[in-house]
């Protein structure tokens, strides 16, 4: 089945130690998103790729970076994780924006990041 | 930035009862969507209602939209234990980014 896959599901890292979270999709969607969701809060968009075009949200810290080497994969890099970066990180995809029914986003199961 | 606000924050009902939750937003929208999130999981899209629509149904779900009041409601009829989850409204404005509310946590008691 077509889907959005995130690996790993649980990630533990140490304070200041770089970490990379992975997302892949078999939907062949143009747009891939990364959200941060802290406990009992709304998902917060960090950035998204429309094809190869990277779009950073204005309030996303510089500590967070992303790469999209091809249509299927997108990575979230946290250069120096702090305790405040502990959260669930959700990857999502959507089709080309502007088309009818393209606004639905398809989410992966998330990666829960713990920072020690 | 967060646009939607949901009410109530938490809801506990008996199996078989209906659950209603509301969402208010601040700016003009292209469409409004509802998502469900089971504990510790990703979000699942439930239903999308466009700004020119007033009501939409999908199975046991009924969504209304009142653009004059900038509000929406989600009704789950004949609730089941499997409906226990957090429910988020999300608005889409002139671009294609979702802006989520803080969610309503629904607990359905057997």
Describe the structure.
- The complex is a heterodimer of chains A (116) and B (110).
- Chain A is 0% helix and 50% strand.
- Chain A is an all-beta fold and 116 residues long.
- In chain A, strands 2, 4, 5, 6, 9, 10 and 11 form a seven-stranded mixed sheet that branches.
- The N and C termini of chain A lie far apart (36 Å).
- The model of chain A has no long low-confidence stretch (mean pLDDT 92).
- Chain B is an all-beta fold.
- Chain B is globular, with a radius of gyration of 13 Å.
- The interface between A and B is medium-sized, with 28 and 25 residues.
Features:
heterodimer, A: 116 residues, mainly beta, Immunoglobulin-like, seven-stranded mixed sheet, four-stranded antiparallel sheet, 11 strands, 50% strand, B: 110 residues, six-stranded mixed sheet, five-stranded antiparallel sheet, 0% helix, globular
Q: Level of helix content of chain B?
A: under 10%
Q: What is the CATH architecture descriptor of chain A?
A: Sandwich
CATH class of chain B: Mainly Beta
H/E element order of chain A: EEEEEEEEEEE
Brief overview:
The complex is a heterodimer of chains A (116) and B (110). With 116 residues, chain A is mainly β. Helix content of chain A is 0%, strand content 50%.
């Amino acid at each position: 089945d077509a889907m959005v896959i995130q690996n790993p599901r649980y990630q533990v890292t140490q304070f200041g130690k770089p970490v990379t979270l992975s997302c892949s999709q078999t939907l062949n969607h143009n747009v891939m998103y990364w959200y941060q969701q802290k406990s009992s809060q709304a998902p917060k968009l960090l950035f998204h790729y429309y094809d190869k075009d990277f779009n950073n949200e204005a309030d996303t810290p510089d500590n967070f970076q992303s790469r999209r080497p091809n249509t299927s994969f997108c990575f979230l890099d946290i250069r120096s994780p702090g305790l405040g970066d502990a959260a669930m990180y959700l990857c999502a995809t959507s089709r080309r924006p502007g088309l009818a029914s393209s606004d639905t986003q398809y989410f992966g199961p998330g990666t829960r990041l713990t920072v020690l | 930035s967060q646009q939607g606000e949901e009410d109530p924050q938490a809801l506990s009902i008996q199996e078989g009862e209906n659950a209603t939750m509301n969402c208010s937003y601040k700016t003009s929208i292209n469409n409004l969507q509802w998502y469900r999130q089971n504990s510790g999981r990703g979000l699942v899209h439930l239903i999308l209602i466009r700004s020119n629509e007033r009501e939409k149904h999908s199975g046991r779900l009924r969504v209304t939209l009142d653009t004059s009041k900038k509000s929406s409601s989600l009704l789950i009829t004949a609730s089941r234990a499997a409906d226990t989850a957090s429910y988020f409204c999300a608005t889409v404005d002139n671009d294609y980014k979702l802006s989520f509310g803080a969610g309503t946590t629904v607990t359905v008691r057997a």
